[in-house]
């Protein structure tokens, strides 16, 4: 049909930045991050991780259109932090959590394969 191939949803075109940053000129300590080639999966996980940060006043995301493969994450922080710091910290925390989950899964798989 008219829909593009599925792989195009996740492959970043050459010369396109994966993440772009735009400060909000109307609200202090607020910004938007546009993340190319991502969907609700990353948007919701990132939003929930940002909500764990006590310096984050607001965190939300949206998909502008179903055929545009990007999400826009909006972050508003207190004066003790900046949106960039909150974003970077949440990405680092998620990376550590996923590494821990992967290691725990691999350890259980190794234990299971030894038993059988």
Automatic annotation (TrEMBL):
Localisation: Nucleus
Keywords, in A-Z order: Coiled coil, DNA-directed RNA polymerase, Nucleus, Transcription
A GO molecular-function descriptor: protein dimerization activity
Annotated Pfam families: RNA_pol_L_2
The organism's place on the tree of life at top rank: Eukaryota
Residues passing through the membrane, by range: none
Record Gene3D superfamilies: RNA polymerase, RBP11-like subunit
Protein name per Swiss-Prot or TrEMBL: DNA-directed RNA polymerase RBP11-like dimerisation domain-containing protein
